[in-house]
Structures are given as C-alpha cells and as structure tokens.
Design brief:
This protein is α/β, with parallel strands linked by helices. The chain has two domains: 3-152 and 196-244, Undecaprenyl pyrophosphate synthetase, CATH 3.40.1180.10; 156-193, no CATH class. It is 45% helix and 13% strand. It is built from nine helices and six strands, in the order αβαααβαβαβααββα. The protein has helices at residues 3-17, 35-41, 46-55, 57-67, 86-109, 125-138, 154-170, 181-185, 233-244, and strands at residues 27-31, 71-78, 113-117, 145-152, 198-201, 220-223. The protein has a six-stranded parallel sheet with strand order 3-4-2-1-5-6, with helices on both faces. The protein is globular, with a radius of gyration of 19 Å. It starts with a helix and ends in a 13-residue tail after the last helix. Bound molecules: farnesyl diphosphate. Farnesyl diphosphate (FPP) binds next to helix 2, helix 3, strand 2 and helix 5.
C-alpha cells in the first residue's frame, strides 16, 4: 500500500475526529496493562483477564488500520514477565500461539503485515512457529504493520545492536566513528520504521517498563486509568484526540507536525 492510501485513511479519520490528517500518529506503541486488576475487580481469575484482553486486540488493530496508522506495536510479554507464576506464563504462551493461529485470516483480509519484536530464546516452539508463520504469510501484505513485542526488553535490544556493531568494528566492517543514530536504529527490531509518535499505557501506571526506549525518544504519552480489557475504540479515539492536541517541538521552539 502506498503512502497515498495511508494518507486517504488519515484524511477520512481526521474529518471524523475534527482534527488535521497530519495530527494522526504514524507509529503507536501500546502498553496493555491491567488484565489482572480487571479480573480481580470482578472476582475472576487472572487468566480470564488475559483472555478478555486478547479479545479486544483484533478490533483495536482494525481500528488503527482504518485510521491510517502505519505501525502498531503491542507490549505482549516482557523479558521480565518470566518471573510470573508458571501457570500464568504457560497460559499466556498458549494464548499467544492460539491467538496468532486465529488472527491470520483477519490480518490477510486487512492487508496487515506482522512483526515480532523480541528475543527468540526461551519462547516455546509452538509460539515461535506461530510467530514465524504469521510473519511469513503476512509478508506479502503492505498495509499497517502490527508488531507483537513478545519476550521483549528494550535494554536487551540495544545491547544486541551494540554487540553486533562492536563485532563489525572489530572485523573492520565499520569505522567506530561511523556509528551514529542511524546505525544503531538499523540494528533494532524496528529497523526502517519511523520513531514512535504515541505511547498509550492503560491502567494508570506512569512508567515505561523497558519498552522501546530508543524508539520513544520524542514520543507523546497517553496514560489512562482504564484497564486493558475495557480499552474500547472510543478510548483509542480519546488517545488520538489527546495526541492531536500536543505541540511536538523536538527540542525546537516551534511546533512541528
Ligand atoms: C498486563 O496485565 C498484560 C500483560 C502481561 C500482557 C498480556 C496481554 C494480553 C494477554 C492481552 C493481549 C493479547 C494478545 C494476544 C496480544 P497484568 O497482568 O500486568 O495486569 P495487572 O498489572 O493488573 O496485574
């Protein structure tokens, strides 16, 4: 899909929301928090919160496609999440593998490309197979990119990039003085993507949790108290309207869009 098609969608969405097309973010990163609290508040088990949380992902992704957003990345499982009780981790792994199998036809229908952000080890084979197949099958698409940050840690991502560059320098493939922002960015999972414009975090915590630290340098933040399973399309529109109201200056004195 060419930039023109994204732009057409942004024009239509902007008209609906009463904003300018260039006030729609190109790259949105979401921290889906609060599944456990959502379940506990209803006397349910934590896994039921995750199950409910998974149910809204598809409609949110479709909404983002329709809005002309080019990249949507969901923080699905951090490297630190392995510390959770084994039953919860096992359930989440089962959920991701099953979810990816189920969502593929919809990704194809919506022309969505799928990407995995994160280390492969120690993800179970079923999850790796589901990730690989979804990446492969959707690679023919050229619409929005949907990224799952799964077994992801931003510091680890940066360490991996630095190690590769250090090895390249040692092997004489790159001059250490030539290592710049572009070179580091080219070795991240998001190589070739624009920086994150908007970070959305549900469930009220004011922290980044080791998420896309390099890519969010100039991102705008939107934090809502709504727990992830209740994050509706109306809530997403509130985030978009909040983003549209920001003045992005990138260190300058004048706003840029
Ligand atoms: C945070 O809730 C959420 C996660 C650990 C990520 C899991 C997200 C999902 C299962 C929903 C999306 C699903 C897919 C398939 C992408 P929490 O357990 O940290 O909640 P709490 O802070 O209230 O305990």
């Amino acid at each position: 899909m060419d930039n023109h098609s994204f732009e057409e969608k942004r024009i239509a969405t902007a008209e609906c929301l009463g904003i300018e097309p260039n006030q729609i973010p190109r790259h949105v990163a979401v921290i889906m928090d609060g599944n456990g609290r959502w379940a506990t508040e209803r006397g349910l088990k934590r896994f039921q919160g995750h199950e409910q949380g998974a149910k809204i992902v598809e409609s949110l992704a479709t909404h983002c496609v329709n809005c002309g957003i080019e990249y949507l990345v969901l923080y699905s499982f951090s490297m630190q999440n392995w510390k959770r009780p084994k039953e919860e981790v096992d359930f989440l792994m089962y959920l991701y593998a099953a979810y990816l199998e189920g969502i593929r036809p919809s990704l194809m229908d919506k022309n969505v490309q799928f990407a995995h952000l994160g280390r492969r080890e120690p993800l179970p084979q079923e999850v790796l197979d589901a990730l690989d197949k979804t990446v492969r099958v959707t690679s023919v698409n050229d619409g929005m990119t949907l990224g799952f940050a799964l077994n992801y840690g931003s510091r680890t991502e940066i360490i991996d990039a630095v190690r590769t560059l250090a090895q390249d320098a040692k092997d004489g493939k790159i001059d250490p003085q030539a290592i710049d922002e572009q070179a580091i960015g080219d070795h991240l999972y998001t190589a070739g993507w624009p920086d994150v414009d908007l970070v959305v975090r549900t469930s009220g915590e004011m922290r980044i949790s080791n998420y896309l630290l390099w890519q969010i340098s100039y991102a705008e933040f939107y934090v809502t108290d709504v727990h992830w399973p209740d994050f509706s399309l109306e809530e997403m529109n509130k985030a978009l309207l909040s983003y549209a109201s920001r003045q992005r200056r990138f260190g300058d004195t004048k706003a840029k869009k």
